[in-house]
Amino acid sequence: MGRVFVPGLRSGLAVGPGRVSRDGVQDRARYAELMHELVDRVSAFNSGYLALPELRLEATRRPELRAVLTKRIREDIDANIGYHAASGLPGDSTSVVLLYLALNWLIVERLTLPGIFTEQQIHELVDAAVRRSLNACPAKVVSYVGRERCRRRSPSGRGPPPVFSCL
């Protein structure tokens, strides 16, 4: 089976080279701007985007499809995390994953049940998702990509550090 490809999409939430300007301040406002652009762009390609949930459902019945789709989505998430780390935007790998999960479902709601949220509510939800994903990011986090854990260093340097789950 070949690689799953939807033009303009990588797991629904890709912000790839050529889309993110590295000029100017890469702050929370810029991050929110990019996420709004992303939600609008992906929502505009509704037939392609809605094929992904159907493909995921089919993967529950076909192990070979599940293996291919899992590999592809994992690669896309890892690429998004890597690109994010290089972009200079605030946040860490956990922020990227939280936004991936939250905005993917927001897009599904927008496309399948458009009366659930108004356009103003969608705008506010994207802003809140960005703000909260960044506020939840401890200042001293050592992040690991994949299924490992994020650890916050103890402020005093003594005692076991609190543990935060990434995925």
Fold and architecture overview:
It comes from Nonomuraea roseoviolacea subsp. carminata. This is Tetracyclin repressor-like C-terminal group 31 domain-containing protein. With 167 residues, this protein is mostly helical. The chain has a domain at 28-137: Tetracycline Repressor, domain 2 (Orthogonal Bundle). The chain is built from 5 helices and 3 strands, in the order H-H-H-H-H-E-E-E. A 3-stranded antiparallel beta sheet has the order 1-2-3, with no helix packed on it. A hairpin with a 6-residue loop joins strand 1 (141-142) and strand 2. Helix 1 crosses helix 5 (119-135) and helix 2 packs across helix 3.
Helix-strand pattern = HHHHHEEE
Largest sheet: 3 strands, antiparallel
| CATH 2nd-level architecture of the domain at 28-137 | Orthogonal Bundle
- Assigned CATH superfamily of the domain at 28-137: Tetracycline Repressor, domain 2
> How many beta-strand segments?
3
Number of helical segments with 4 or more residues: 5
Strand-residue fraction?
Answer: 5-15%
Whole-number mean pLDDT: 76
- The percentage helix is 55-70%
The SS-based structural class is mainly alpha
Uncertain spans: 1-18, 139-167
Distance between the termini: 28 Å
What is the CATH top level name of the domain at 28-137? Mainly Alpha
Using the CA coordinates, give the radius of gyration: 17 Å
Give the overall shape, derived from the CA principal axes. Answer: globular
Q: For the largest beta sheet, what order do the strands appear in spatially?
A: 1-2-3
- At CATH level 3, the topology of the domain at 28-137 is Tetracycline Repressor, domain 2
